Amino acid sequence: DAGITQSPRHKVTETGTPVTLRCHQTENHRYMYWYRQDPGHGLRLIHYSYGVKDTDKGEVSDGYSVSRSKTEDFLLTLESATSSQTSVYFCATHRGLASYNEQFFGPGTRLTVL
Amino acid sequence: DAKTTQPTSMDCAEGRAANLPCNHSTISGNEYVYWYRQIHSQGPQYIIHGLKNNETNEMASLIITEDRKSSTLILPHATLRDTAVYYCIVRSSTSGTYKYIFGTGTRLKVLA
Questions:
Q1: What are the angstrom distances between the C-alpha of A24 and each of A33, A44, A109, B100?
Q2: Per-residue pLDDT tens for A49-77?
Q3: A6-47 pLDDT tens trace
C-alpha cells in the first residue's frame, strides 16, 4: 500500500472555515494525487503533483489548493469550505519513471461541511 | 484526456468467470488502460493494466481489442470477495506527468 497515511480520517467542519487535509507517504514516490469521491461520480481528480513544488489542476480544482514542500507530504486545502465539498477524499501516489507503475491509494478522509 | 464508458452494474454467479467491458474509443497511442477495484469505501486497489497486448496476472486477465477502442477485464473464477466497484481508466501522459481519469465504474455483485 506504499505506506500512505491520511489525516485526519474524519472531520466535521462548518461552512466558511478553512480545512487542510494531509497525505503522507514513506515510499519516496514522485507523483501524488488528490481525488474526491461522491455518489454517482466515481473518483474525480482535484490536483496532482509531479515533484516537490510542482503541481497541476485536475478535473474539479475550483475551491481547492495544494502544496508540496517535500516529497513525502501533499497537502490539500479548502480555503473556505462549502457544503458541496462534503465528500470522501483519497490521496494516491505513483512511483513514475516507468510507464507500467500503478497508483497506490490511501485509506481516505471523510469530510463533512455543515 | 480519453474517457471510459462502463456498464453501471453487473451480476455474476460465484465460481463463474466475470467479464467486465469498457469502452475507450478516444484512446490515443501511448495511453495505457488500467483496471482498479474498490471494495466498500476503501481506497481503490490496482488489478492489471495493458497497452496493446493481452495481459494476465494472478488476479485477472485483460483483453484489449486490436483497435484499442475497448477492453474486457476477466475474473476467471469469481468469488464473493470480488464483489466491488471496478474502474476502467485510461492513463494520459503529458510531458512526463501521469494523470488518471476515473469514470463511475461497474458495480459487480457476485452471487452465491
A1: 11, 20, 13, 20
A2: 989 999 999 989 999 999 999 999 999 99
A3: 999 999 999 999 999 999 999 899 899 999 999 877 889 999
Distance CA A96, CA A112 (A): 33
Residue A92: its chain B contacts at CB < 8 A? 43-44, 100
B-chain residues within 8 Å CB-CB of A103? 36, 44, 46, 100
A67 vs A10: CA distance, rounded Å = 21
Q: With the C-alpha atoms ordered B92, B36, B102, A45, is the resulting torsion angle positive or negative?
A: negative
Tell me how close the Cα of A47 comes to any Cα of chain B, in angstroms.
10
Write out chain B residues lying below 8 Å of A33, CB-based: 100
Q: Which residues have C-beta within 8 Å of that of residue B42, sequence separation ≥ 6?
A: A107, A108
pLDDT confidence band for B85 (50 / 70 / 90): very high
Contact with chain B for residue A51, Cβ under 8 A: no
CA distance A79 to B107: 34
SS3 (DSSP) at B80: helix
How far apart CA B86 and CA B6 sit, in angstroms, is 9
